[in-house]
């Protein structure tokens, strides 16, 4: 899903293997995910989508960026929605493997993540997509 404030943007659903970048969208105050070099199209994730961040997750804070993940294992996250009972607030979030939850709107821009798995469908099956191998090291030229 895309957060409520992204509903007026062009968007598409995430697919296994997509490399996504955290970005701000020019017509909103919301951060979300887009494809590298395509900040005009929001990439929407369904709750339960699993992501592998290339680097430890960072959030924006009063004093700049704060590194939130302290190990390579903590780069894995699951997309979810929080505070759904509170209209007019951001709902999109990522939950790290250690249980910490951060709203997508608080993530530092430019972080790269690969969609490694989509959530199960209502009938318990998964969409048939090829397995994705996540490269453990990113080349400098690929970083935004």
What does this structure look like?
The chain is an all-beta fold. It contains no helices and eleven strands. The two termini are 24 Å apart. 26% of the residues are buried. The model is unreliable at 128-144 (pLDDT under 50).
Write the layout of secondary structure elements.
Layout: E1 10-13, E2 19-24, E3 31-34, E4 41-44, E5 50-53, E6 58-61, E7 64-67, E8 76-81, E9 92-96, E10 101-103, E11 112-117
Parallel strand pairs: 1-4
Antiparallel strand pairs: 2-3, 2-11, 5-8, 5-11, 6-7, 8-9, 9-10
Q: Mind telling me the C-alpha Rg?
A: 14 Å
Which stretches are low in confidence, meaning pLDDT under 50 for 5 or more residues running? 128-144
Strand tally: 11
Strand order of the largest sheet: 3-2-11-5-8-9-10
Class inferred from helices and paired strands: mainly beta
Percentage of residues assigned to helices: under 10%
Mean pLDDT comes to: 78
Order of helices and strands: EEEEEEEEEEE
Number of alpha- plus pi-helical segments: 0
**Main beta-sheet strand count, sense and barrel state:** 7 strands, antiparallel
What is the overall shape? globular
Percentage of β-strand residues = 25-35%
